[in-house]
Design a protein that fits this description.
By secondary structure, this protein is α+β, with helices and mostly antiparallel strands. It is built from 5 helices and 6 strands.
């Protein structure tokens, strides 16, 4: 947990306008030993991938089966405290792509509410996002968790007023760092 706490402090220093969010994540991290598990009913850590193609101009999105929205790939930590590894695993599982490479630094933080579904009460996802690079093929396979997958131009996500606000934030971050 010390490495995650340090990564959150580094994120706050890199993105001062998001320092309060990083402090909230650090506070949640310190709140219980079960924050990486779904049994922590108030909320839990998840990890997502901003999965970019070789050119760096497109990102792979999922039309999420449960949430009915186009989003980045990702999922539950399920006890794994290495969230970069979780983001990579989720990207591989949800896309069928191999040869992916994850950047170890946090790319984005987003806390979002997940509504009640069946016997699972509504809860918070403390989502830590990482950049993942497609280094080999880009021919994906749609998993059971998605209606569909699609490569989408990052500049179009930013320009689309219907895009999720956190998706637009990640697009801005990505485009700002591109050479």
């Amino acid at each position: 947990m010390d490495s995650l706490r340090a990564a959150l402090a580094a994120y706050a220093a890199q993105w001062p306008q998001e320092a309060e969010s990083a402090r909230d994540f650090a506070g949640f991290l310190a709140s219980a030993d079960t924050v990486f598990e779904r049994i922590h009913l108030i909320g839990h850590f998840t990890a997502s991938s901003w999965l970019v193609d070789r050119s760096g101009t497109r990102v792979l999105l999922t039309h999420h089966r449960k949430l009915e929205r186009w989003l980045q790939l990702g999922g539950h930590a399920d006890g794994d405290r290495d969230l970069a590894r979780v983001a990579l695993r989720e990207a591989e599982e949800e896309s069928g792509l191999t040869g992916l490479q994850v950047e170890p630094e946090m790319f984005d933080l987003d806390r979002h509410w997940i509504p009640e579904r069946g016997d699972v009460p509504g809860h918070w996802h403390y989502d830590v996002r990482y950049v993942v690079h497609a280094r080999q093929g880009e021919d994906y396979v749609v998993s059971d968790e998605s209606h569909d997958l699609a490569w989408r131009r990052i500049d179009e996500i930013l320009a689309d007023p219907g895009s999720d606000e956190s998706m637009q934030r990640m697009a801005r971050k990505w485009l700002a760092r591109a050479p």
